[in-house]
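Obj.: predict assembly geometry.
Materials: sequence records (below).
Method: joint structure prediction, all chains together.
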Amino acid sequence: MLGVNRRALLSVPALLSIPAILRVTSALAQDASNQLPSWNDGPAKQSIIDFVRATTDQASSKFVPPEERIATFDQDGTLWVEHPMYSQMMYCLDRVPILAAQKPPLRDEEPFKTVLSGDEEAIAKLTTPDLERIILTTLTGMTTEEYAAEVKKWLATGKDHRWKRPYTDLTYKPMQEVLSYLRANGFKTFIVTGFGQDFVRVYSDRVYGIPPEQVVGSALAVKYDYAKDGKPLLIKEPKLMLDDNNAGKPEGIHLMIGRRPHAAFGNSTGDRQMLEYTGAGDGARLAMLVLHDDAQREYAYGPAQGLPDTKVGTFTQALYDEAKKDGWTVISMKNDWKRIFSFE
Amino acid sequence: MLGVNRRALLSVPALLSIPAILRVTSALAQDASNQLPSWNDGPAKQSIIDFVRATTDQASSKFVPPEERIATFDQDGTLWVEHPMYSQMMYCLDRVPILAAQKPPLRDEEPFKTVLSGDEEAIAKLTTPDLERIILTTLTGMTTEEYAAEVKKWLATGKDHRWKRPYTDLTYKPMQEVLSYLRANGFKTFIVTGFGQDFVRVYSDRVYGIPPEQVVGSALAVKYDYAKDGKPLLIKEPKLMLDDNNAGKPEGIHLMIGRRPHAAFGNSTGDRQMLEYTGAGDGARLAMLVLHDDAQREYAYGPAQGLPDTKVGTFTQALYDEAKKDGWTVISMKNDWKRIFSFE
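Observations (raw structure tokens):
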């Protein structure tokens, strides 16, 4: 009936009536305990609340004008499960048989042959160049629209092996609450992912309330071309344009957002430079790292736990030391999160 | 007093009280004549009004959900004056003496020597590679923050030669009205400029109400590094990362926005592919071209006027023919705009 989007309106605090807006500043900060219900009381939860209070209170020396309230979130391991393998890597592996059916010579070519063998042990041993080759081969040679349609289809049917649920169910409820809490306080939230932005953009609005243009990630080049009927197309090319990992994260933030974030969340060495860049700005800055130390409810991995390194997000001792030195807050999944998932 | 941005709130239709929201759809479309006061009645104004009506009316087969309402605007020649030279090129030329004072050998090196001579005729004859060399030299080797500060300083003092006003005063009032009208109807507005996005981002919010992250433009690479005191920096490098012209416009739109616009505005062959890409989408699409045919109030240039080609935005006969064929609307500055600038 309305020519306006109900969901978008309902998520905007501005929709509140005028008197309600007058109460917003104090009410929101004080209601933090209600807005972060999946967090246990402790230094991690407190640092989020303190940051929001300081940046939204005009009487505070750390007040940040709303148009500068930028918060960035790594995705894999920070907003959703990354273990034992990144979801987008699962997608690429699942694409190999489809591609091999279209191009039979791939069946005898490594690393595709190994993937097709189904030998999980051998697949787990594929090297980084092998995986990169699989990524470049499975994500390219199609239009951007065909790719988005493929990802959408895969997400609707693919299921995680442990919880037997769609991958998009495996987001962390406490982090969803942080996204909402920051947005309710005037922050614009962005995903800054080391994996492909075209992948995350397919579901970012539905899953995180983050529109596609607020997803920064690694990006393959696209090439403008015309179909036989003259219709313009964008073709995904096997050429990495933006490697949004490590130093590439602040570089990507500058390219796509153009401003230094006031808050950043990560979980691995790939997020180090984003957190450094965020933390080094003037005034109130919040830099947080999710530590995977809950083997029972999720996973425990990374050398900080005395566990062997894995292919996914590495939380090294050096990163832990830098966090302590620079005043970043480490979030312990085990101690700081009352609940991990919405479905529990 | 409030921990919220007054200006941001006031620009959001959602701030209206609930009963007002119920009236929004019909009221806004009907009030178009009030919202586009600098436009003369005619096909150009009508096509904008018709497009907004169709895309915001849920009863229309061309209704577009608010989250998909993306509108892109070229800047130079579309939102503000580009003749006789792009403002950012003026900035680069003005930087040459400053740079030569820091690096004296530049004084004897072309094309810097010509720029320093002040010989306007010779400067006007500089080739595209000359200009590119000047751009790469004057915009790099500093941090992103130093660059933004320099641009801000230049904008505060630099004045256009004809109107003797700051460059940022030279935006077209009718286009400012289109930006506001689209935003009032739920569209997210983006600048897609062939020139540098770092330049436009310095003033986009103040001048157009468009935040930095909604400015897509040509971009030099930045390199993450550390200052001597260990503080992280981003250094502007002399390496073109994104050439946001011609086919680079839809490619840049995909990279930075991730969706096909429903409306696009340009004024030259550099905007052709953006308009093709926009126009080729399903449902209601609006593609418009500003024609500079008003020598008295602004400028008249481009072969469509039987005038010699210039270094700035070229509106060729071929572009004009494509516009007619594809149903794009040509805006005649002379006939469609009642007023050109706010200061008049």
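Conclusions so far: The first helix of chain A runs from residue 6 to 11.
To do: check interface contacts against the pulldown list.
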